[in-house]
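Appendix B. Raw example, untouched.
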Amino acid sequence: MATSLPVNQIKKKNIINYNGNLCIVLECMVRTPPNNASYCQMEIRNIKSGVTIPLRTNIGATFEVFDNSLKSLELLYQADGNYVFQDPKTFDEYPIPAASLKDAEGFLVENASYQVLFVDEKPVSVDLPAVIEMKVVEAPPAVKGDSSGNVQKPVTLETGLIIQVPLFIKEGETIKVSTETKQYQGRA
């Protein structure tokens, strides 16, 4: 259910309707420059496409704000262009189109728990933690004598994501990876 709110009451993480698309508010600040009218500077992300949009509106603008909540669900499997999540308490299954999860795709491990964003009781995206633990499934051996400076090598993680790690990381190890930068953060 949507509620119409003026722009100065919209907060970070609200879900709004912008040009017919559901968007999450990443930033929302009211600016009052001297000798000028107040305006609102927003940064929003289209939930389906993942595109970030800078938006500047006058202070009198209103937006439809949708009810949203987070639920902890387990990823069961991927099939037919959907990721299927399950509520571990009720065993209800929730398919989410893979196109809606472009940012999270390399971090979705089967049987792991994730915070899933629901808008009007429908799952729309996954709220990833800042750092996630993943297993290294493929790592080339380190070359002896190549240790000057910060030398790194590419490894493949359990989801197929390829990242750069230090030479001492071996196949089968579990490492921490930043979900924002896709960079190695340390051993788990």
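End of appendix B.
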